[in-house]
Every structure is written in structure tokens, then in C-alpha cells.
Model the fold of this input.
Amino acid sequence: MTGEDLRNIIEKSDKSLADVARHLFIIPQTLNSKLKSKDLSYSFVNTVLKFIGSDVKNENIVATQINSSTFDKETLQKQVETLKHQNESLISTNEILREHIDTLKKHNNALQSIQGILNSTEKLIYENREILIRELEKYAGKISTKGNNKNAK
Done:
């Protein structure tokens, strides 16, 4: 389908070109550039038609435009090849991400173990601090008692 064909369909719908651009997350100038194309991708045309489809006043226009447009075989074959390469790349990326996730899980387990050790160490330090304070208080009390005994003599 040509860009001009799609532009005509959009203009006959209840949606504006700006509405379509916003839906596609592109600026209107980019949409205008795409609509000047001689051959639009099937996925682009399908996305736009789905967006405006319920608001098209005469749905036969859409059917006629799609049926009369030619998505030439060579273009479709190129798109299929491109999609195959993208799929292979995504599969590879997915495998790499799974490896990273496994590594992160191992690191997380190690960090949880370290956190447990730190918590135990912190508890021991607190307990030893309390023991040390009590012992120092006892020792300070003995020194104080000896000092009072000397002064009493």
C-alpha cells in the first residue's frame, strides 16, 4: 500500500493525522514523511488501520484499499529475512540475559550469606560490648571501693 492510499483512508476516518502520529509515538512530520512512501510495511499499515478501524465511516474503503494494494513479493521476502535475523538476534540476546540472570542470582545468594554473617557478627559485637561494659563497671567499682578504704584510714 502506498502512503497516499493510507493518507486517504486516515482522512476519511474520524481520526486526524496528529491522532495517528500520537498513537504511533512519532511526531506529525515523521508521519507525513512515511505517508509519502511508495511502499509501506504491512505492520505499519496494519497498526494504523487497527487504530482508525473502528472510526472509519465506510469500512469498505479499507477493504478495497487493502485488496487493491500490492505488497510485492520481493519486499515481503526482504521483510521476512529481516525478521528472521531479528528473531535470531533476539534469541541470542535472550540466552545472554538468562546467563546474566543466573549470575545475578548466584551473586544475590552470596550477598545474602554475607548479610547473615554480618548480622551474626554485629550481634556478637553487641553482646561482647555489653559484657565488657559490665566488667569495666565491676572493675571501676573495685577501684572506687579501694580508694574509699584508703581515705577512711
